Each structure stands twice: as structure tokens, then as C-alpha cells.
Amino acid sequence: MNKKSSAMGAIQKKKEKTSIWVHLFFIIFAIICIVPFVTVISASFSNESDLAMYGFSVLPKKVDLTAYAYLFKNPKMIVDAYIVTIIITAVGTFLGVLFMSMAAYCLARSNFRYTRALTFFIFFPTLFSGGMVPSYIINTQYLHLTDTLLALILPTLINVFHIIMLRTFFKQLPESLFEAAKVDGASEYYIFFKIALPLSKPVIATVAFLGALTKWNEWYNAMLYIREDSLVPLQYMLQRMMMNIQTLLDSMQYAPGMVDITSLPGENLRMAMLVVAIGPMMLFFPFFQKYFTRGMTVGAVKG
Amino acid sequence: MSIGIMSKQKNGKRKKRGSFKDNLQLLSMALPTILLLAVFNYAPMFGLVLAFKDYKVTDGIFGSPWAGFKNFEFFLKSQDAWRITRNTLGLNFLFIIVGIICGVIFALIMFEVKRARQVKVYQTISILPSFLSWVAVGYIVYALLDPTKGILNQIIEFFGGKGISWYSEPQYWPVILLISKTWQGVGLGSIIYYAALMGVDQELFEAAEIDGANKLQRTWYISLPQLVPIIIIMGLLDVGKIFRADFGLFYNVTRNVGALYPTTDVIDTYVFRALMNQGNIGMSSAVGLFQSVVCFITLMVTNSIVNKISPDNALF
What we know:
The complex is a heterodimer of chains A (303) and B (316).
Chain A: H1 2-15, H2 20-44, H3 48-54, H4 66-73, H5 76-108, H6 115-123, H7 132-142, H8 150-153, H9 160-172, H10 175-183, H11 188-199, H12 201-216, H13 220-225, H14 234-243, H15 245-251, H16 267-284, H17 289-297
Helix pairs in contact in A: 2-16, 4-16, 5-9, 5-12, 10-11, 12-17, 14-15, 14-16
Chain B: H1 20-47, H2 60-63, H3 70-77, H4 80-111, H5 116-127, H6 134-145, H7 151-158, H8 173-198, H9 202-210, H10 215-240, H11 247-253, H12 261-264, H13 267-276, H14 281-309
Helix pairs in contact in B: 3-14, 4-8, 4-10, 5-8, 6-11, 8-10, 10-14, 13-14
């Protein structure tokens, strides 16, 4: 499909140009996409009294670094959150990709006897789920995951749709490769790690990226299972702060009454926190866009 | 969106059974996945008996005394049942319809961009909001809607109107949630339609052009009909999940403000509050069971419809 479409693109390029209206549409849409980000950044660089007086704006009235000074004067909370997030993203993505690709390989191998049973076992949870309450009871009362990083890693490790993507890819690898290796006496582990995996880099990268994104954005399980401040990941930290700015001020041991009440950081601190929490990711993730788009289209369009 | 998961073995190709040793190795490779699913997906399914129990921490799930249908009665009599079901179904239905329409229009316009480089730039920007968690989207919505500082009220007041206290006026929220959801998801959602358009035979467009069809006619008579199958399938797959609300959206974007519950409280947020705030395990699991069962039925029904239209696209 790719080759064909790029060839078509070459023909089209000669014949027609993109209409100005189309560009206009996307420019307006781009503004709608970007303006909220700019507003958040502007608010983080604003003085709290300016915000109270004039409200949020696309450009700050005057650039003021109070909020960032607060953040970096007592960075423990944000540093902890970054560490937690990086750990759960790295460990979760690595183990997830490893476990899911092994299971997918298993489903893709023609000499595996229990393909149907295993496929059903893996697929059924997408049709029927126990839901939040039983999971919560089991994870807290039986597995004692409260206030452990495992609570943020284990429950979301396996994504059934990613297994299906991996399996579809493994199935397209030439069977003769596996058979030749078998004749040479290779074990299934050897074939998986030395033959199947190296040939599957595109799909592995896609699954790894999608997995990393969900783990980076993890807040749900943290909300259910994390009470300990040092184990809070970034997104949950942001959520707690949205619900209650006092949480943030308390954790920074801010002593009220020391400064003019209007310059007490509030909204600007909140927004600065958001910038520090999502900024690096927003700069970094667009480079992986192709994995995102690939993840959306794999299997759906058999072009 | 993966397709044909339970597809039958290809006919005519006799399956060669591997040795016992090979199968043992393969099974051991699948073991971590099997164990994780068993613990985090299958165990909670059995845990659904909680809906019929009077749960006591000391007795555990299976040791607690039976409560019959008491938990369900409590829920059905609470007047919340109708509200959260209506909100879940109504809002999800709105999201599905608008999501598809916007995604298709977006893809059709994207298809008019003729340079691969420009397509990439526009796609990257339009996907940017999809990288955000709902928590971050909640912040952005807050920056727009905060009654005193928000951009939207500034604009209203600039034109002489009176600012609206958004977080205490539930009637606006279906639209606010719809816009948030569309803003976050349309770029990503359009990709599947765009990919389908890229797969349309170019000769169709050329033939139409020779026959004198203008751009709008080509879009209406060629592009759109080519998209119909994928539109139907995406729609049906979404309808299959209509009883499950996007918890992140409803919890974070509304900031869980009580005044907004009349229009924004959905099954998932209701269950969450019943569990975490009231500690009402019996009722919350009864609602959860109701949701799981209804969800399962709708999925089976929609899948069998997809199976009739286009077996290739059915889930199983």
C-alpha cells in the first residue's frame, strides 16, 4: 500500500496543488490544538496577582518566575514523581513487551497444540470483565498491593489488543525460517529470541511505544492504590493538585502569612506543575508519531 | 482495532503437531501472560459474586454471608439508576456519532492535502492532544472555563455578556465533554479513515474527473461510499462498548464536581464513588455486575451484526 500511495502522490503532485481552504482549515485546527498549551505555559509564567486580576491569557502580562522558583526550591515531590513514573514506564514496558510477545509467538506457532484454547483465554477478558470493585477488593485485601509500585505495574501489564497485533505480525514471518531452525535443533526459546524477535522490530516498537504512553499517563491505579506521597506518579500528582491546591502547598511546607496574600502561588503554581510534568513528554513523543498511527491502522485496513 | 482474532484455522493446510517438548517450551513462554490474566482479569470475574454478598473484610469474598438481591434493590430504589444509565448511554451515543462524523470529515480534508510532508505536519499537530492524559486535559479545560480567570468568560465579558459559572451549571456539560473528547481524539480517530481513503483505487477519481465531476462530487460519490464499510464497523464496535464510560474523561474533566452530577455522572464514576466515598461494596459491585453483563450482551450482538456485514472485521 505504501509504495502504491507514494507513487500516486508523485503523480498528484504534478497535477494538483492543495487548496488554500484546506490549508486554512488545518491552520485553524492547529491553532485550536496549540492555544490551550500556550495558555497553560503563559499562566505558569505569570504572577498570581496578575492572574487574579486579568485571568488566564495567551501571553503573560509580565513574565514572572515565582511559580517555578517555588517548584524548584522544594523539588522533592516532582523529582519523586518523575522517578516513580520512569520506573513504572521502563519496567512496565519492558516486561509487558516481553510477556506479550512471548504469548503472541506461542499463538503464532503452527506446532502449538492449544492455540484455540489459549486464544480464547487471552481474548475473553475483552468481552467480559469483573470491573472495578472486585479488582479493588482482590488487589487490596488478597494481593496487598496498596502502596507498592507493583500496583502501578502489574494490573496493566498485559494488553490483549497488543498481543493480537504481535501475533498477526509473527504469523506473517515465513514458516520455513522456523522449520529450518527446528531441523538444526534449535529450541523454541532460541527461535523466538534469535529469529522471530529480531525480525519483528517494527511491531515491537509500536507496542512498546503504545505501552510506554499508557504507563507514562498512569493515574487510575495510583488513585486506587497509592496513599504514600513518595510513590505518587506524575499524572496522579497532577490530579491530586487539580482537586486540591492545598495538597501542593502543604507538601511544600509553605508558611502562610509570610508574604502578601495576593502573590501567594496558586493557579500559576498549578500550571507550572503541569508544564514540568508533561512538557518533556510533549517534546519527545511526537517523534514517535509513526508508531502511534501504525498502532491505529494495523489489521484494520488490509491495504 | 484488531480483527479476526478467533479466526478458524485455514482449511486445506493440515496442522503439524509439535513435539511434547516444544509445546512445553511454548506453554512456558505464555505462562506469564496466563498468570497475569488469571490474577488481574479472571479472579475479579469470580469476585462479581460480591454483588450477591454482604461483604465483610474479615470473612473475605467467599466467606461473607449471602445477601440475595438486596444490593440490586438498594441501587434500583436509589433513583440514581435511571440517571447514570441515561447519562452513560446518551453521552456515549453522542460521542460515537460526533466522533465518526468529525473523524470522517477530518480524514476527507486531510486527503485533500497533496504533499506527504504537509500531511505529516498536520497529522502530528492534530494528534498532539491524544498524547495527553485526561488529567492534563482537565487542566486545559479548567484554564478555559474557570469562572473568574477562564479564557471563555473573558471572551463573553469582552462582548458584553455575563460570565457563566461553568462548574456549577450542569446543562452545559454534555457539550463541554463532547468538545473535550473531540478535541482530544479527532486527530487520532481520523487516521483509520484516512488510511482507508489512501487505499481507494486512484483510477476511480481519475475516471470521475474525466467525466467532469468536481471535487465535492468526487468526495460525495467516491470517497464517502468507499468509507461506508469502515464507518459502519467502527460505529458498531463503539456501540458494543456503549455501557462503558471513559472514566478518565468524566472524572477529571468535570473535576468530580458534585453540582455537575445530574448530567455528568455515569455508571463508572458512580461505582467509583459508591466504593471509595461510601465504602458501599455491595451496591457498587451490584452496579458493576449489571454493567458487565449488559456490556457483554451488547458486544455479542454488535459483533454478530458485524459478522453478517463483513466477517473480516468481526472481533471473533
